[in-house]
Amino acid sequence: MSTDPLVVFTPSGKRGRFAIGTPVLTAARQLGVDLDSVCGGRGICSRCQIAPGHGAFPKHGVTVAADALSEWNAVEERYRQKRGLKPGRRLGCQARIMGDVVIDVPPESQVHKQVVRKAASARAIELDPATRLCLVEVDEPDMHEPSGDLERLARALRAEWGIAEIRADLSLLARLQKVLRKGKFQVTVALHRGHEGDAAQVVEIWPGLHEGGIYGLAVDLGSTTIAAHLTDLVTGEVKASSGIMNPQIRFGEDLMSRVSYAMMNPGGDREMTAAVREAIDTLAGEVAAEAGIDPALIVETVFVCNPVMHHLLLGIDPVELGQAPFALATSNSLGLAAKELDLTAINPRAQVYLLPCIAGHVGADCAAVVLSEEPGKSDDLVLIVDVGTNAEILLGDRSRVLACSSPTGPAFEGAQISSGQRAAPGAIEAIRIDPRTKEPRFRVIGCDLWSDEPGFAEATAATGITGICGSGIIEAVAEMRLAGLLDESGLIGSAAATGCARMIAEGRTHAYLIHDATASGGPRITVTQGDIRAIQLAKSALYAGARLLMDARGVDRVDRVVLAGAFGAHISPLHAMVLGMIPDVPLDKVTSAGNAAGTGARIALCNLAARREIERVVRDITKVETAIEPKFQEHFVAANAIPHKTDPFPELNRIVTLPQVSFNTGAETAGRRRRRG
Amino acid sequence: MSTDPLVVFTPSGKRGRFAIGTPVLTAARQLGVDLDSVCGGRGICSRCQIAPGHGAFPKHGVTVAADALSEWNAVEERYRQKRGLKPGRRLGCQARIMGDVVIDVPPESQVHKQVVRKAASARAIELDPATRLCLVEVDEPDMHEPSGDLERLARALRAEWGIAEIRADLSLLARLQKVLRKGKFQVTVALHRGHEGDAAQVVEIWPGLHEGGIYGLAVDLGSTTIAAHLTDLVTGEVKASSGIMNPQIRFGEDLMSRVSYAMMNPGGDREMTAAVREAIDTLAGEVAAEAGIDPALIVETVFVCNPVMHHLLLGIDPVELGQAPFALATSNSLGLAAKELDLTAINPRAQVYLLPCIAGHVGADCAAVVLSEEPGKSDDLVLIVDVGTNAEILLGDRSRVLACSSPTGPAFEGAQISSGQRAAPGAIEAIRIDPRTKEPRFRVIGCDLWSDEPGFAEATAATGITGICGSGIIEAVAEMRLAGLLDESGLIGSAAATGCARMIAEGRTHAYLIHDATASGGPRITVTQGDIRAIQLAKSALYAGARLLMDARGVDRVDRVVLAGAFGAHISPLHAMVLGMIPDVPLDKVTSAGNAAGTGARIALCNLAARREIERVVRDITKVETAIEPKFQEHFVAANAIPHKTDPFPELNRIVTLPQVSFNTGAETAGRRRRRG
User: Fold this and answer.
1) B672 falls within a domain
2) Which of A161, A190, A207 is the last residue of a domain?
3) Which residues span the domain enclosing B625?
4) Same domain, B220 and B201
5) Domain tally, chain A
6) Are strands B55-57 and B49-52 parallel, antiparallel or unpaired?
7) Among all residues of chain B, which has the CA nearest to that of A361?
């Protein structure tokens, strides 16, 4: 017996000997080479395209003869004429091994394509979604072996795809017989795999080969906004993203006011549940329309959200989350059918996955940040801060990860600020104050020019200058401190004390005028003493949470800081550190992760193993409950000031020196005491 | 070390030695003694009551001292005062072993009580339903270990009851937190076990110890009637039974006319689905009201039905069942939530179980008959006939079981018979014709007297004599044959040929007058030639089906016959054999199984293992499709006659001799040919 031909696959380098006549797809499967196929080798899906090499490959020790593969066959020719096939490509299910050969699997023929996540990270997500397409030939019914159509479909999936067990709901059963007959017993099924050992769920079934693709929705359900990213589950590509306001805002701006609404109004939780489900349904329809796809092709949805949103989405009264011990109804990940959440725009059998919650205040959104940022795989000690109405804070490295949440309130989002507004065109998002002249210059959303650059007035004429958004107020407060307009305690100096004509007396306190558009009917934008106090409260809460985790870990500094959250992307690290929002680290050690929770949702959507990973990882996270730690108050009070800094880490590349000034006359302090009384 | 005390449990006889101080419940569990407990040994459910013996038990080699058990304790005293405890009874979780002892477990303390099925059978069903009650103490939430309430409930069930995994739907999750707190974290859950390896479903949860019981509904969903039996899942007792007409009758009397309705009317299947689900929901509410229980305590339902009813119940268009190859959408058993079938009267999370279907014409009702009658465990060859609009026929013994269904049509139910009617008061259900005088005497439903007995007229005055029901027409035809009024071919003789004045000429054929109430405005009840032909068709179909199974088995006689079906209970074996409905066997070898399908449903409701058994058994049944077997037609034609019999089995106790007569003049035959054209 002569030696069987040697087959080398690239780029994997996997190799083996196969009998003459073995289809390339068969060889690939036996070697575990990642070569796609939906039709199971019937020459109709073309997913298994390969590119055979020619000539000598010294690296692999193989010389490929011209007849190393079987001749171009009729199936390939028909496919080429009908759909087109790039020159040099063969169908792996048709081409048979006739001699030693090197076969390249192009990226588009790999099932587990790498879905590049983001430029900032080397990590890529391997595409291996929970739901996949399988084409099968089902045995026709036979009176002598009268098993049901579903049972014969199960048998075909077992034989052709190795699926141990399937289940189908009644709505699928009601479609099954017609579709099987329409497809002449050849059908494509969208199969959803749950936990290992669970039966795979038949989500959808199409006659013949389904070429319309399947899609998934990653939903970041925030207290304020709901964002949805529509992802092609075959290519991993994001086809469309869209967001809408969370309609629950009408029941309360922040989480605790919504919990209060539920407590005070019988049935209030059900109202909020109905509102958010309807909004998600609308959003799903919109994002599908934007991508130009049939919403019934959305077969999967992943949700990330904080615990209150989580419970309200599920129809659970969040009242227990409003009081110690903040007990979750359920903390594990959840798999549901979309219809259980009244989602009707998408496929009625679409499967929903909710990431696990970490604790009563640390939700599935934080778990998604963990999945995205992987603090447990960090060599150095990383502090991750997801800034929103609540801040989720993570601290960790390979040895251990800790998590807490801190009630920063909505000031960082521009709410409860006198000139504050949401991030929208016309909002001041960046500001600089000249330390010498105390004059401000700023940039507004929707315009790349600074306010002192030529053409700014014209460029902003349409939107006007309407207020300050979250990142703008943080910069404004930090710049005021840097310019000596604010003292360590956070008190704004008077015009006399600061020598700045923009200081306006407001009762016993002062405000800093950034922009006055009253002459043209616009607003007068100032930073008031109240604004400073609101930001101080927020930043103290954030900082105190981080300190609490550092205490628990027994450290007093961290190696790097990651700012997450849609808002985190816009915060200037310098200003955050001036304010004392985050512990001091070298500026180049502060990075933005963008919407890490949304990224985590996308990862869970695109990769089944990632779900199992985060379910395992969250169990090992040490949860710190800020509400019951006495030291939280201590840190909170201590963090209130914006002190003069004497460069505590001279070895680090600090670039900030805060002026040592004091405006305290007692007046504002008395006023504050009264207000807080 | 002295020898530990010896403990003997009766009636099981299980025995073992236990350390002094071991609670009796603990000892029972270790020995596998069937001693109930819902509260897990907390002294509150009283299910573990035991009766310790006193004195010498030579049989067990034990002498029980007065202090063999620990002293009556405060928990037992409190229970006795509050709820009462029979003299001599102790609580097994409180009484501790102090010396050698014999302990009797009274029947009401056994979990797996034997639920006696019926007098006719030695077999009893062991009570081990899929849904059971468990009382657990759940850990209170703890901020330092912030797992969800559901996860802590799961942990408690694992620790106290050995439940590996649980799942709960959103409606249960929405209740969970309130109930846990209301019960101070002590709750009773109704847990439903599915297939091995599946997570147990939390169907209901109550604060503290739930003493209201749980119930199951066994539903026999027939083409004509729907019967429901409400069973106490703790005692196995049937609390109430009720039936209603299947409202689908308005869409078609028999199965095939309903399939036609679905084929001819778009959405017709959905109309029929909605109608039957609504009827079942109504029936469930009624049967609960009859038993005086809260319908929300119905946590389980088992359905048995033929394939068309099965598909229509599930919302599947039955069109495929109306044409070869009669493909079922699904043949396996099914587990569902009640709400998926729009059942709202019972617990919304109640679990529904449908028995498997055997083939496209042999449904879950036939599987239930197999479960009830166990042909596969029979030592002799048994033929089981479930007579309805379709007849399900089973033939088998330990070596092999065969099944088919045969389209008998509704004649056996009194339909398509000139004086036919459903079995209801006033219907003739039994009839005898004097072979000498040719005079009939009969009995009607609602009266125990024969028509020639004194007082009959008075007793039936209220109902009148309104028609003939199924069993009546069978007897009438058989009696006419025995009296020589009918020849072998089924032709009715004329008055002249038979010498009977009751023969009425009707065109070219004759009819036999049973009762004439026209003088008092009542009906004239006759058996016409058309009636005879309808019965001949029905009995030929039934007989041909049985013969087909006998052919497949290679036998030409069977050892015994079981008549099943509500109607089967009323058929006279003698008359059935005269007619040739069933193969000849000794009369004492024909028994009635009553409503065997309903009994099978009750077995599946009361015993989880029975579900696994029938799922396994149906796979091994040989299915014979009457519609495609050429020999069916042959047997059918051959079975049409009611021939003169010459005692084919002289060794058997035959008691029938049919007269050898012939009335064939050609007239009726010509008429028949024309009609059938």
Assistant:
1) no
2) A207
3) 367-410+535-638
4) no
5) 4
6) unpaired
7) B146
A245 and A320 belong to one structural domain: yes
Worst-scoring range by mean pLDDT, A37-51, A102-116, B151-165?
A102-116
Q: Inter-axis angle of helices A630-638 and A529-553, to 10 degrees?
A: 130
Q: Are B566 and B621 in the same domain?
A: yes
Q: Best interface-test mutation with B: which of A145, A310, A330, A352 has the largest number of B CBs within 10 A?
A: A330
For A230-257, give the DSSP string. Answer: EEETTT--EEEEEEEE-GGGGG-SSHHH
Closest Cβ opposite residue A325 in set B141, B176, B316: B141
Query: Which residues, numbered 266 to 325 in chain A, qualify as contacts with chain B under a Cβ-Cβ cut-off of 8 Å?
Result: 314-317, 319-320, 324-325
Q: Could you tell me the CATH number of the domain that includes residue B604?
A: 3.30.420
Is residue B662 domain-resident? no
Q: Indicate if ipTM > 0.90.
A: no
Encoding tokens for residue B563?
């008549």
Residues of chain A in contact with residue B176, where contact means CB-CB under 8 angstroms, are 329-330
Residue B623 with chain A: CB contacts under 8 Å: 143-146
In a domain, B676, yes or no: no
pLDDT band at A646 (very low <50, low <70, confident <90, very high): low
Q: Of A70, A89, A109, which marks where a domain is finished? A: A109
pLDDT tens digits, residue range A154-194? Answer: 999 999 999 999 999 999 999 999 999 999 999 999 999 98
| For A619, nearest residue in chain B (alpha carbons) | B147
> Within an 8 Å CB–CB cutoff, is residue A448 touching chain B?
no
Q: For residue B141, what is the nearest residue in chain A, using CA coordinates?
A: A327
List the single residue in A with minimal CA-CA distance to B177. Answer: A329
Of residues A143, A176, A326, nearest to B329 (C-beta): A176
Number of H helices, E strands in chain A: 17, 31
Whether residues A82 and A183 share a domain: the answer is: no
Residues 618..657 of A with a Cβ closer than 8 Å to B: which?
623, 625, 627-628
What predicted TM-score, i.e. pTM, was given to this entire model?
0.83
Question: What are the angstrom distances between the C-alpha of A182 and each of A152, A188, A208, A211, A639?
Answer: 16, 12, 8, 16, 69
Is the CB of residue B364 less than 8 Å from the CB of residue B310? yes
Average pLDDT over residues B79-92: 87
| pLDDT score of B119 more than 50 | no
Tell me if B314 and A174 make a contact (CB, 8 A cut-off).
yes
Q: Are residues B402 and B266 in the same domain?
A: no
| pLDDT at residue A574, as a whole number | 85
Query: In this predicted structure, what is the pLDDT of residue A652?
Result: 52
Instruction: Measure A357 CA to nearest chain B CA, in Å.
Output: 9
CATH of the domain at A265: 3.30.420.480
Using pLDDT thresholds of 50, 70 and 90, give the confidence band for residue A121: very low
Neighbours of A266 (CB within 10 A): 8
Closest CA to B578 of B478, B645, B490, B652: B478
Task: Please tell me which residue, A387 or B156, carries the higher pLDDT value.
Answer: B156
